[in-house]
## 1
Amino acid sequence: MTTTDGIIRWGVLGATSYIAGLVMPAIAGQPHCRLVGLAGRSQHADRVAALADEYDATGYPDYQALLDSPDIDAIYVALPNSAHVEWCERALAAGKHVLVEKPLAMSVAEAERIARAAERADRQVMEAFMYRFHPQQRRAAELLASGIIGQLRVVRASFAFEIPSGSGNIRLDPALGGGATWDVGCYPVDVARLFFNDRPISAYAQFTVRAGESVETSAVGVLDFGEGRRAVLDYSIDYGPRAWYELQGGTGSITVHNAWAMGDEPGRLTVRTSDGPREETLDARDHYAEEVAAFSEALRRGAVVPHSLNESIGTVSACAALLRSAATGSAVPIDKIDGRGDEVSGSLRWR
């Protein structure tokens, strides 16, 4: 445990409306957490000050000033993708635990830098795939493990929502790590790896680049997990909204209809077998709050966080392979790019 009173004191790097609306309430609402510090860019000083007043927290003049505070135990890194590695490393060097927005990094070499920094600092890092903490994912895993649909053969997963051109959204800026793969594609990739519980052996993708943009804005992809097991993915910032996945087994399927259900939306699953379809509904839950609670409880107990860096490195690897495939027009064996660590390559060294 990091504190003598059992309270995890949080600081947030990045004061966007998304974080203010979803993540900050999730932190402040936990009985063993306290949101004590915020920092944003200088042009957002008024927003930081207003949010700090709302949460009875301290607004810091810059990111490093927040990290230097002895009053903070854990950091939520909510910065553009291109800044994740630097500020994770800085937070770890300052002795803080880190919950970082996905993607952890944009190459395996960078992800492994974070892992080494965490080991040196004896602090924990977890990538914020909030959807994993919704009870509907646990229920889907229970149903799969029960054998009701037989052996898992295909994962179909989709995540899409529209980002208009000219909106100024950072997801359209290549310099900030934009593009559909790192923003929305990493989710269906992570779904496939979560349920196959294995590494893909190759990846194939085709991308669309919207006219006037410099990043991929839509994609379809296939991850080959060997032995006839494949994940079929589509993701986009051209169209939507869509957030869905299906686990296809030899004797049936499990469909999760809204994989990224918000806090006021119930989970809904359909199981289809030769006996016909069966619907299940789960109570609405805030998966951001569930994620913060799970991470904080691990810190309080001195336990390992529930989503490991090895798992994150695997997802980075698969996303990197999809990017390489789209660039080359051919399937990319994961092993052939192991350890190269450039912007679209990576390795998977777990399980």
## 2
Amino acid sequence: MGRVHFIAIGGSGMSAVARVMLAHGVAVSGSDAKDSAVLDSLRELGAQVFVGHDAAHVADVDTVVISSAIPESNVELAAAREAGALVLHRSQGLAATMQDSRRAAVAGANGKTTTTSMLTVALQSAGLDPSFASGGELTGQGTNAAWTGSDLFVVEADESDGSFLVYRPEVAVVTNVQPDHLDFYGTFANVEAAYGTFAASVQPGGLLVACADDAGSARLAASAMESGTRVLTYGFDDRADLTLSDHVADDEGIGTSTELHLPGGGHVTMRLATPGSHNALNAGAAYLAATAGFGADGTRVLEGLAAFDGARRRFEVRGVAAGVTVVDDYAHNPGKVAAVVRTAADIAARRGGRLHVAFQPHLYSRTRDFAAGFAAGLAPADSVVLLDVYGAREQPMEGITSEVIAAPLRELPGERNVAVGGSFEEVAHALASSAREDDLVLTVGAGDVTELAGLVLRALGEG
């Protein structure tokens, strides 16, 4: 590919691909709208990184890597096309670096970043040392990607724009199939068809690991089995090949213990330091993929899962001030929001405290399509602040504001305070003034809401 330039190199997916290419010795440059710690780390690895976009940045490059969020009007992309440079989607760039690796690809509307991270750590614990590329930084390792030179590669397969079809994995994991990214797919039927193609891309003799608890994933598993693909399912459903049971949280609600009933008979105890039954499911998927997919030793896999301390922005405890715990999470669709809020509410209740949530909706189309689902997911909180919609690649839509979530939320049973709008500084001080010792503050969303967590901690400290 020659010299490679990444447009918006600071994004989680783009930076992961850039790290892998740098490890391969590829000459990498990139640009992003603003400076960040991610850009600093890429510079340290040898990338030439620019802040701001300029056609001059691609004057001497051979290949340009983009994501679906980059518009054709971007000056660097337009200049690259005019110059005849090779333009690749980030998934194509990553696939090119995998060469002859045995590949595991993790897909799903919810949980794929955590499952990718868990599978990576499980294989590391088993001594298999996989290369990996994830959408979130492994907090214990300080990176979201690495090239190790082993014959295994674990990748988070992003379904948002259909690009997850390029990897042709030996082991595929599908955590769930749910209606999301309808701005791209249009209908849920198209979403399901894309996952069907993903399952069909598993290499001959490979394995599909699918969640039996999710209706869409269960349908996918049944269809794949009919087509002759080897399939193993997991879930709390007793019809799953790997059945989870006796899921118990510790007194603080963070650590958990779950019994795994194995496909070949017998059972083992799985202990995790990450909260929630949804994370137990993610770990069950990782256990199956590692053991049944790659032959990893089950005992060592469980040791790795027990030591896993999370991925960045996946129920990440940002700090404690004045006895209040502040947690940040990337959840941005109804299923993810429901899982993280339910888990946080349980932890707060165990401590005798309350849960305060600041949620930033992501995309106008998603807010429009799933307002009622977001309201239901937020309902367990004692108070909710709905920030302005983070439009990302979309332009504002008439009548679509955070109020479309607030209205149905106010109508749901139970007592909770619901507020809409405000600057980050205003919201941070409001949260700090209402939170008490043993309470939990949760900042949620895929936009810049992550900056709010630090402001809340500072406001609590000042109080």
## 3
Amino acid sequence: MTTKKTSGDRLYQVFIYVVLAMLAIVIIVPVAWVFLASVKQNSEFYGNPWTLPASFYWQNFVDAWNAASMGSYMLNSALVTALSLAILLVVALPAAYCLSRFRFRGGRFLNVCFMAGLFINVNYIVVPIFLMMRDWDSWMNYFFGKTIFLNNLFMLAIVYAATALPFTVYLLSGYFATLPHDFEEAAYIDGAGYGQAMIRVIFPMAQPSIITIILFNFLSFWNEYIISMTLMSSSTGQKTLPVGLLNLMQGQQSKAEFGIMYAGLVLVMLPTLILYMCVQKKLTQGMTVGGLKG
């Protein structure tokens, strides 16, 4: 049986479409403007900012990549992001699986600890983290004559993974809890152990949720600035892309080379846009299916 739409329903639908169109314009126009500005020559910035570029001046990207060392910064960010995601998944997936699928002594306390971590803003504790790692480096330098905690990309990746752990475990635990136990029990009957059932049965079923947390954390790690700036303050060759981008913007503004500055912005945005387009379908599934009861 179908219900006929009233004029109020149509008006509400039109209102929703108008709001969505306005939101799309607010998001798309600045992004498109940055892409167009990245291929303009310097002289074109002193006229109407909304004019199209006379030609595609790709030299801005070459200068941003080589002269401004954006290639080195991007490589550092890619390395740190990949290491952070690998460490995070290795720790968070088994932790979320155990907390959501098993009942054991201390499990509720661990759940409370992870929940409490959701309310801690890492920007508020970055200074204590820096002071703690500085003291550890002083101790290492005193006994071994070298430092390993500050200005180290691997240690930065560990800090990134640790700060993202509460949210990741919370999201994965909520999804794992919705999966039925029948599949695991069938795997146990076939002779699989707990680890095999987790890796071969549960993780493939949780693929949409896993892709969701990978994308969220990738965006967080790739665009993170405060922790990287604090923990990598003395290293010029190991700065990540957001820190390098800020240095580029400050330098190019003083030189009035705006094309190179916007080319650097495009280099930062492009990997996230490509990743989102590749996993957009899985991301939508992961955000909706976790709320369904199995």
